[in-house]
User: Which sequence fits this backbone?
Protein backbone atom coordinates (compact mmCIF):
# COMPACT_ATOMS: atom_id res chain seq x y z
CA UNK A 1 0.00 0.00 0.00
CA UNK A 2 1.29 3.45 -0.90
CA UNK A 3 0.82 6.59 1.10
CA UNK A 4 1.43 10.19 0.29
CA UNK A 5 4.25 11.90 2.23
CA UNK A 6 4.76 15.61 2.87
CA UNK A 7 6.75 16.08 -0.35
CA UNK A 8 3.81 14.95 -2.50
CA UNK A 9 5.74 11.92 -3.71
CA UNK A 10 4.34 8.42 -3.31
CA UNK A 11 6.43 5.94 -1.36
CA UNK A 12 5.61 2.61 0.21
CA UNK A 13 4.88 2.78 3.94
CA UNK A 14 7.76 0.47 4.90
CA UNK A 15 10.27 2.91 3.31
CA UNK A 16 8.88 5.84 5.25
CA UNK A 17 9.00 3.88 8.52
CA UNK A 18 12.51 2.63 7.80
CA UNK A 19 13.79 6.15 7.19
CA UNK A 20 12.20 7.40 10.40
CA UNK A 21 13.58 4.60 12.53
CA UNK A 22 17.13 4.20 11.14
CA UNK A 23 18.08 7.73 10.15
CA UNK A 24 18.62 9.19 13.64
CA UNK A 25 20.77 6.23 14.69
CA UNK A 26 22.89 6.50 11.54
CA UNK A 27 23.37 10.23 11.96
CA UNK A 28 24.37 9.70 15.58
CA UNK A 29 26.88 7.01 14.62
CA UNK A 30 28.30 9.22 11.88
CA UNK A 31 28.67 12.08 14.34
CA UNK A 32 30.45 9.81 16.81
CA UNK A 33 32.71 8.52 14.05
CA UNK A 34 33.50 12.07 12.88
CA UNK A 35 34.38 13.14 16.42
CA UNK A 36 36.51 10.03 16.97
CA UNK A 37 38.36 10.49 13.66
CA UNK A 38 38.86 14.18 14.43
CA UNK A 39 40.43 13.36 17.77
CA UNK A 40 42.60 10.60 16.31
CA UNK A 41 43.65 12.82 13.39
CA UNK A 42 44.50 15.71 15.69
CA UNK A 43 46.51 13.49 17.99
CA UNK A 44 48.35 11.93 15.04
CA UNK A 45 49.19 15.40 13.71
CA UNK A 46 50.50 16.50 17.11
CA UNK A 47 52.68 13.38 17.42
CA UNK A 48 54.01 13.85 13.87
CA UNK A 49 54.84 17.51 14.59
CA UNK A 50 56.64 16.54 17.80
CA UNK A 51 58.65 13.81 16.05
CA UNK A 52 59.65 16.14 13.22
CA UNK A 53 60.85 18.77 15.71
CA UNK A 54 62.78 16.10 17.61
CA UNK A 55 64.45 14.92 14.38
CA UNK A 56 65.48 18.48 13.51
CA UNK A 57 66.95 19.01 16.98
CA UNK A 58 68.98 15.78 16.72
CA UNK A 59 70.27 16.43 13.20
CA UNK A 60 73.93 17.19 12.63
CA UNK A 61 73.26 20.40 10.64
CA UNK A 62 71.10 21.74 13.52
CA UNK A 63 73.65 20.81 16.19
CA UNK A 64 76.56 22.38 14.29
CA UNK A 65 74.80 25.76 14.18
CA UNK A 66 73.79 25.65 17.85
CA UNK A 67 77.36 24.75 18.87
CA UNK A 68 78.71 27.80 17.01
CA UNK A 69 76.23 30.00 18.86
CA UNK A 70 77.16 28.55 22.24
CA UNK A 71 80.88 29.30 21.79
CA UNK A 72 80.35 32.87 20.53
CA UNK A 73 80.67 34.92 23.73
CA UNK A 74 79.36 38.25 22.40
CA UNK A 75 76.26 36.67 20.89
CA UNK A 76 75.52 34.69 24.03
CA UNK A 77 76.01 37.81 26.17
CA UNK A 78 73.63 39.82 23.96
CA UNK A 79 70.98 37.11 24.34
CA UNK A 80 71.50 37.02 28.10
CA UNK A 81 72.47 33.39 27.98
CA UNK A 82 72.97 31.06 29.70
CA UNK A 83 70.34 29.81 29.89
CA UNK A 84 69.91 29.55 26.14
CA UNK A 85 66.47 28.46 25.01
CA UNK A 86 66.14 26.87 21.60
CA UNK A 87 62.55 26.90 20.41
CA UNK A 88 60.79 24.76 17.81
CA UNK A 89 61.33 25.83 14.23
CA UNK A 90 58.33 26.79 12.13
CA UNK A 91 57.91 23.98 9.64
CA UNK A 92 56.03 26.24 7.21
CA UNK A 93 58.67 29.00 7.18
CA UNK A 94 60.31 29.40 3.77
CA UNK A 95 63.71 29.84 5.45
CA UNK A 96 63.56 26.23 6.62
CA UNK A 97 64.48 23.87 3.82
CA UNK A 98 66.34 20.58 3.96
CA UNK A 99 67.13 18.22 1.11
CA UNK A 100 69.79 15.57 0.50
CA UNK A 101 72.57 18.08 -0.18
CA UNK A 102 71.66 21.31 1.66
CA UNK A 103 70.08 22.40 4.92
CA UNK A 104 68.90 25.96 5.45
CA UNK A 105 67.35 26.69 8.86
CA UNK A 106 65.88 29.59 10.82
CA UNK A 107 66.05 28.51 14.47
CA UNK A 108 64.27 30.65 17.09
CA UNK A 109 66.47 31.24 20.15
CA UNK A 110 66.14 33.32 23.28
CA UNK A 111 67.95 34.19 26.46
CA UNK A 112 67.17 36.25 29.55
CA UNK A 113 67.77 39.60 27.77
CA UNK A 114 66.83 39.14 24.14
CA UNK A 115 65.56 36.80 21.45
CA UNK A 116 66.18 36.28 17.78
CA UNK A 117 66.84 33.78 15.04
CA UNK A 118 69.85 31.63 14.34
CA UNK A 119 70.18 31.31 10.57
CA UNK A 120 72.32 28.46 9.32
CA UNK A 121 73.34 27.01 6.00
CA UNK A 122 74.98 23.59 5.76
CA UNK A 123 75.99 21.27 2.96
CA UNK A 124 76.37 17.51 3.01
CA UNK A 125 79.51 15.70 1.94
CA UNK A 126 78.13 12.64 0.18
CA UNK A 127 81.43 10.77 0.33
CA UNK A 128 81.95 11.15 4.08
CA UNK A 129 78.21 11.25 4.79
CA UNK A 130 78.67 14.29 7.04
CA UNK A 131 77.22 17.77 7.19
CA UNK A 132 79.47 20.84 7.03
CA UNK A 133 78.37 24.19 8.37
CA UNK A 134 78.92 26.84 5.71
CA UNK A 135 77.43 29.84 7.51
CA UNK A 136 75.79 30.70 10.83
CA UNK A 137 74.31 34.09 11.70
CA UNK A 138 72.43 35.32 14.76
CA UNK A 139 69.86 38.06 14.09
CA UNK A 140 68.38 39.58 17.26
CA UNK A 141 64.92 41.17 17.41
CA UNK A 142 66.50 44.63 17.91
CA UNK A 143 68.31 44.29 14.56
CA UNK A 144 71.76 43.40 15.91
CA UNK A 145 73.52 40.70 13.89
CA UNK A 146 76.44 38.43 14.71
CA UNK A 147 78.27 36.38 12.12
CA UNK A 148 78.98 33.26 14.12
CA UNK A 149 80.67 31.34 11.35
CA UNK A 150 81.41 31.82 7.66
CA UNK A 151 83.42 29.05 6.06
CA UNK A 152 84.73 31.24 3.22
CA UNK A 153 86.06 33.82 5.68
CA UNK A 154 87.62 31.06 7.80
CA UNK A 155 89.41 29.62 4.76
CA UNK A 156 90.69 33.07 3.74
CA UNK A 157 91.92 33.74 7.29
CA UNK A 158 93.70 30.38 7.40
CA UNK A 159 95.39 31.10 4.06
CA UNK A 160 96.49 34.54 5.21
CA UNK A 161 97.98 33.11 8.41
CA UNK A 162 99.85 30.37 6.58
CA UNK A 163 101.09 32.71 3.84
CA UNK A 164 99.44 30.58 1.15
CA UNK A 165 98.45 33.07 -1.54
CA UNK A 166 98.52 30.68 -4.51
CA UNK A 167 94.76 30.22 -4.57
CA UNK A 168 93.84 33.88 -4.03
CA UNK A 169 92.41 35.72 -7.03
Assistant:
Amino acid sequence: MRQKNAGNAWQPQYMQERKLKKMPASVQKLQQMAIYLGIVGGAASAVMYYLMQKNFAKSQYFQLAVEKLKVHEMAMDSLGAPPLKIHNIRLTDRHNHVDKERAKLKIPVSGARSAGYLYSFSTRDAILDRWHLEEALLQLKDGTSFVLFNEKEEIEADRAESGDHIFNN
Q: What stands out?
A: The chain has four helices and eight strands.
